Amino acid sequence: MTIPKKRLQSSIFRFKQFVAEAPGAAMSEAIPLARLQSIVNLEVGSYRDRLYPPLTTLGLFIEQSLSADGACQDAVARYLSARHARDQAPCSLNTGPYCKARQRLPISLVEQLSATIGERLEQSAPSQWRWRGRRVKLLDGTTVSMPDTPANQAAYPQSGEQAPGLGFPFAQLVGLLSLATGAVLGVAMGSTKGKGSGEQALFRELMPQLDSGDVILVDRYHCTYFTIAMLLARGIDILTRQHQKRLTSPEAIIETFGGGDRLVRWVRPQRPKWMDAKQYATMPEELIVRQTEVGGRELVTTLVDAKRVSTSDLDALYRKRWMIEVDFRSIKSEIGMDILRSKSPEMARKEVAVHLLAYNLIRSLMVRAAVLAHVLPRALSFKATLQLWHAFSQQWRWHLGEATESVVTAMLRAISTRIIPHRPDRIEPHAVKRRPTTHAYLTVPRDQARAAILEARKSLKVVP
Predict the structure, then answer these.
(1) What is the pTM of this model?
(2) What's the pLDDT score for residue 339?
(3) CA distances (Å), 332 to each of 176, 200, 294, 394, in order?
(4) Sequence-separated (6 or more) residues with CB below 8 Å from residue 107
């Protein structure tokens, strides 16, 4: 059953306001209106006319993920403010209805919106933003922690180095991001323990999202025979570092270009445990890869034509792999996804999806500002963009129509001026100077610590 057209249009209009987009203009820049309506109809379907309909809930959820507070109470307070600005009846500050609405929100809706924005930004990137006209994608892994609840511990067990009751559940994420725009194109989430929980297993989940002709930059952890073979079968080139445990024998060298640049033959290793015999039979018996020593590291790539791609070209391209580390820092530190708040695995996955959707919406603003300033999106500051979004966020609650568009235009112009200085080969120590305030660490579960404090109080003598 589809949503009535009038209700759908009203919900989309309010959603545009919540995500800081001008009605009929800016949001359609990120997602075409017809596509947005199609996704909502498909993923939401029919719903009751509640105080927190799906798109309103999603808009508040996005604001909550971008807020420094991050609490549900803060989101409800923002909703009360927005309803007052639109001369609507005030809502209660009770967070219960909003929390239930978040639970009802389909995660597929959030994931589809995020994927659509990322895909649209990647496809619309002009050729000068790409590497030799080819799309370059970055892949890496990271972790997020969440509240220590039995459900979270069962789905995402804590580290084995932590004593029971003292650690926090950890989930592993592998993300696929665009080098040109910084947008998230895909993400796989899993446990840090058990079968199929490694980065390579999660990477294989994301491979269908890669397109023929792509170039992917990964770290040395993914420098494996079968990863390269599967990518080549899909028409995808890879650039990575040589794994420290792989040694190249002189007999494997086919051709030498000079200066440590050479073609090498890799022979198919034994079948790994995760691969069945049928798939193993489809793997080529050998691979021809290029290994080159440049910039103090040894690179491995399937870009084997040394005349078209020099060693300095490979070095310059691989240096950009570091951008995904910066992107993860923005997502975890600036967006606040480092420590999740959800107490169930289902809500934890939804919370991650909303954070990534919020991140892609900010990236869409940066892309539009980059076009306005005739610069690369990577030249603009993500943190400054987020600051400006917060600075302007209250204005479109009080402006409608053309007035809202003028506010967004002013914001985009401001974003376009926040250009990051070019600092190649910047080196900083991975350390901080200011010492944190020292606190004792829990060495027993919290309930036992509370019991010990109460027992100690009982033994104290009361002096009259």
Answers:
(1) 0.89
(2) 94
(3) 15, 22, 32, 24
(4) 346, 349, 350, 353
